[in-house]
Each structure stands twice: as structure tokens, then as C-alpha cells.
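*** Residues and shapes ***
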Amino acid sequence: MNVQNIMTNLEAKHPGESEYLQAVREVLESIEEVYNKHPEFEKAKIVERLVEPDRIFTFRVTWVDRNGEVQTNLGYRVQYNAALGAYKGGLRFHPKVNVSMLKFLGFEQIFKNSLTMLPLGGGKGGSDFDPVGKTDEEIMRFCQAFMYELWRNIGPDQDSPAGDVGVGGREIGYMYGMYKKLAREHSTGALTGKSYGWGGSLIRPEATGFGAIYYVERMVKEKGDKMEGKRIALSGFGNVAWGAAIKASELGAKVVAISGPDGVCEIADGITKEMIDYMLDMRASNRNKVQDMADKFPGKAKFTAGKKAWSVKCDIACPCAFQNEMAEEDAKELIANGVKYVAEVSNMGCQPGAIATLQGAKIPFGPGKAVNAGGVATSGLEICQNAEHRNWTAEEVDKNLHTIMNNIYDMCVEYGKQADGTINYVKGANIAGFMRVAKAMLAQGII
């Protein structure tokens, strides 16, 4: 495999798809050495097949707003690779959603799902619909219209979407309600992230954040360190940051910053349970303003407009919001402020320059496809519970999640251990995820 030749061909075939091309390059550069030791992979053209989605659905979504005006958005579903099992990946509602973004997310999802060791293929979807400022009724109407167009192409053994940015339990509920009406199927894993009591799993809303902190805890222990007292900066304040804040606090760490598009809230004494609970209200308000935390808890949270979470001194930094949210200059600011560990909780949350800067400074860096795999892992566990027509206890789910995250960490160390004894977690995650998919593709023939 010649990475540059493959990338040149992809750039010509898919011009302007920057996020997708960035994700592919990162993986190919990580696996090149291992791949070239397997001539059977080259003969079967594993990489050339892997980098292209199996199919992409694009559809119009028409709905009526609160003023009776007809609105039209675009909807998408990218089904990427089913070598390991049915397609699995979230739905993102955000005005910047486009094919490039969803291809990058779906491509990353292949390896993330592979790392969980569950029988899940890669997928992703969403719409350029913006939920910010919409009423509950408008969101319901949009979700129903979106699912009306998608429902024939999903199912527990075909493709199982979940939530992502802009899609939480409320949105999943509206979409699942429409799916059940159209498909006449009940209590299935056709969508995951459902509420508990009608097919959802306990721990699922918290799972991405919980799993991320379990992974970070292992990174910390790897250095002979401990979580107690560590100062953690989180970007975002949605479900992912919320779950991370809960688990970090349980482990004795202090969340000292959360951020939003409007700026950052510094919480010098560490986030409290009341503040963590309020994060749910902030998410549900559709205002997308982190300043609300400072307004609710004056004297405990200090808001600074236009600043990122990385401006706050911390020991551990966790991007939890959006792709490429941490730039090279942010990484340099973190290093100057004494950061000891960085873990991507958002998908591809760090730009290549930021990753190179952190790794160059010998800061342990955990990549998103490993760190945030707890969300899809627990979605997989939700599908298992639906198939059994029962719910597991919170303890059962959390135990399985913790085991999966420990196994993922161990695989990253196995494939990422360097000659000098350091661990390249990016390389480890990419190789571990790729090898399982490649072997399955090889075994199943040229299809």
C-alpha cells in the first residue's frame, strides 16, 4: 500500500471532502507498516474497498414549522462497512452536516465498532436541520418526517442508528415512535438510545462519558498516577460532557471547565452535583449557551465569552463537542498550562497539528475511536437486551461497559507500544480496529 497514491486518487475522486480525507489519511498512515506485511490484504484490495462506503442514502425532509411555513432539509444515511455485522452509528442534526462530515464519522465508526468486539459494522447519518431555537413540536414534526424517509433502510439486523450531536433521548423517542408505526415492529434495536421503560438501556445516556473516563483512568494509571484530585477541562455540555462529569466526579477528579459556542465556564472548586444536573436543562433548552451555567450558579461558575475550555489550567483535557475543535495553538496553550493527559471524547476532536504537538511533547493522547467507544458499546448492549426482551440492571450494563473499555485500552497498548516504551494510542487503536475488519473482509471474499 502506498498511502500517498491512495490519497491522491481519493482527493481527485472526492474533492473538497476535507473531514473524510483527513480521517482516511490518519488511519492509513497508522496501519501502513502492518498492512504491507500482509500481501493477502493487498491482493484483495482491502484498503481500496474499505475507504469507500457501501452506499449513501440522500433524501429530502419536508416539515411544517410553528408558523405554518413549509421547511425543507436534507437527510442522509451512510452505510460504510458490514464485514463485522449490521451497520451501527449515530444520527447528527446540525446545520453543517454534509456528506463529507458523515463519511468521516462513518469511516471512524468502522474501527470504533471493531474495537468493542461486538458484531457491528460502521454507519452514520443525520441532517442539516438545526434544533437550536426550535420548539418541541417542531422537533417532533421534523423527526417524524426524517424517519418516514429512512425507515425502510434500517432495522436491528440491517442498520441501527443512535443519537449524536443534536440528537438525544427526545429525538430518538420521536423517531422510534414513527418507526414503530410504519414498520409495525416493537421493542427492537432498530434505534438505540431509547428511554428506559420502552426498550432503552440503563446507563446509555451516560455511556460515552463513562467509557471515556474509564479509558482516561487507565491512561493515568499507566503513568503510575491516580485520578483523585485531577483537574479536568471538558468542552461542550451535552450528554457526552455530562456523563464524563458524573464519572470523573465519582472517581475523585474535579471538572473545572465546560464550554459552549459562546465561551467557557470556569468552575474553580469543581463541578457539583447540582451543576451536573443543570447541564441536562441546558441541553434541553436548545439555547446552546454555556453562560446559562454561570447565570444559574453565580459565584461558583465564571463565564468568559469567546474563550475555549483549554484556556483553563487543567491536568486532563477532554474535547467532548465537535470534530477538529482543538487546534494546534490550543494544544500549545494546554501544554504551557501543564496538561498531563489529553483524550478525544468527540469524534476526531483534535486537528492533526494539535495531535502532533501533544505527541511531540510526550503528552499521552487517546484518540476518539477508542476513548468514546463506550457509547456505541452500550448501544450494542441495548440491542442485546432488546433481543432478549428484558432489561439488565444498571450494574450489569456498567460492568459490561467497563470490561469493554478495559479491553479496548489493552488492545491499544498491545498495538501501540513503541520501542522506547511509550504508547502511541492513535496507532494502537487504528491497527487493532483495522485488523479485525480486514480479516473478516478477507474471509468473506470479494463482495
Q: What stands out?
A: The longest strand covers residues 70-81. The first helix runs from residue 3 to 13. DSSP finds 17 helices and twelve strands in the chain. The CA atoms of residues 317 and 342 lie 5 Å apart.
